[in-house]
User: Fold these one by one.
Assistant:
Number 1:
Amino acid sequence: MEADLDLDGTDFEIIELLIADGRRTLADIGKVVSLSAPAVRRRLDRLIELGVIRGFTAILDHEKLGRPIEAFTELRFAGKTKVADIAGIAAELPEVDEVYTTAGDPDALAHLRVRDVADLTRVIDLLRRSGRITGTKTLIVLGTETKAARAR
């Protein structure tokens, strides 16, 4: 895929710098990659236009937001459930950050952020009540290591 997009080492270096700190200035990026700020802007615009960079986001401190517990719940559905229906199963639940549909067993993984174990139980019960889920298995996250955190 990289060859199709014609990306070079500087493009990948810019991407890594933005992963580490999405608020980095064009001038700062330029110093690191030996380009002017306008040249960095052109490369960044191109990466956005190509769809390599799809957006910018904030990294949140979920503990300060009152949802310190992170978990993944495996979801199993009845055999005739459509993938599109699986993906939308938790659209109304703000505690569910993302739903990943998967091939095989389980059918999906739900990424949850909750206040405490009682809240986690409540959210899992709500998912199960949909009537389409035939089974769940939940894993509570003990810690997370990200590329962005390693880069700092």
Number 2:
Amino acid sequence: MKPTKRNILWIVPILIIAIFYYFYGPKDTIHENEHINLIKKQTLVENSNLTIEEAFNSYCSKEEWVYFETQKRQKVVEFKGECPVEDKVQPVNLQFLVEEDEFVIGVLLLNHVQQTEEERETYIQTVYNQE
């Protein structure tokens, strides 16, 4: 049987979709990485011996550390967990932007709502000042 134009015209869009899916589709979640280890060992508050990992693991439950790269090739480490906020346990996402051996605190989401820089700093102080 000889291929017709109609068959070939179906193959081209399917190939284009497959290529886009390969490059821009979902990626595997990375839970162990040198950037994650770098962030976990740092501290966010001066005059504190608690690392980021110790502070968040003792304050939150269902902790998860994830590494990914953005479309612009920024390296991001994200803490995900369920933490007490205003007397309720809510989902928390805190992102750290990693550049070589340094990092910058990124976005804080409380219950899937982005917080301001002041609210983020207040929350971090709350985590470190836990009893």
